[in-house]
Write a structure and sequence with these properties.
Double Stranded RNA Binding Domain; 3 helices; 23% helix; alpha+beta
């Protein structure tokens, strides 16, 4: 009976561990022109990058989060098609299922011989840990350009992966977290990749 209670407790703890999956950091890489003096000044609009659909609710949520950060670093918000500079935003989100490490069933065979006879034993083990939760991968990319000339002043990418069980897999929480990480210490060191927790 005691062994049964320990087995049930072990399975319960394994299931609980699957629900409280740790969340990884946001990985950020940024590049900027040698002259950073135009950054963080004047008016700017956030618009879809070429090939991006700016009409989705998800894209609009990220647009609002990015604009909040741009205002925080010194810009003044402009409407679509206006502004001295334009921040072109691209968003890519995908879901994938990680593989379980190892087989869910294992079989062991053991044997022994001796002067008092021989023996053969077969053991079967079942992995009772739950199947890994699906993961959501998100990449946010922003390119700041001079509107008149099209010259790129700054580019940044932030990527983040979270379990579908995590609240951070949803757009509502992920958008502000990723945008804040992307513009942390703006404009940042060109070419450097950092991890923001």
């Amino acid at each position: 009976m005691k062994c049964l209670r320990i087995a049930v407790l072990t399975v319960g703890l394994a299931a609980l561990a699957g629900c409280v999956t740790p969340v990884g950091p946001v990985e950020v890489t940024r590049f900027h022109a040698e002259d950073v003096s135009p950054l963080g000044k004047g008016t700017i609009a956030v618009e879809p990058a070429p090939g991006s659909d700016g009409s989705t609710l998800e894209w609009q949520t990220y647009r609002a989060a990015v604009m909040r950060q741009l205002v925080r670093v010194g810009y003044t918000e402009a409407g679509t098609g206006a502004g001295d500079q334009v921040a072109q935003l691209r968003l890519v989100r995908s879901t994938f299922q990680p593989d379980r490490s190892g087989s869910p069933v294992s079989v062991g065979v053991g044997g022994s011989t001796g002067s008092y006879g021989s023996g053969l034993g077969v053991g079967i083990g079942f992995d009772l840990t739950p199947k890994p939760k699906a993961q959501v991968s998100t990449e946010l990319a922003v390119s700041i350009r001079e509107r008149a000339s099209g010259k790129v002043l700054w580019e940044g990418r932030a990527s983040f992966t979270a379990s579908t069980a995590s609240p951070l897999s949803g757009t509502g929480l992920a958008a502000p977290k990723m945008s804040e990480a992307l513009f942390l210490n703006f404009p940042g060191k060109s070419g450097e990749t950092i991890e923001v927790k």
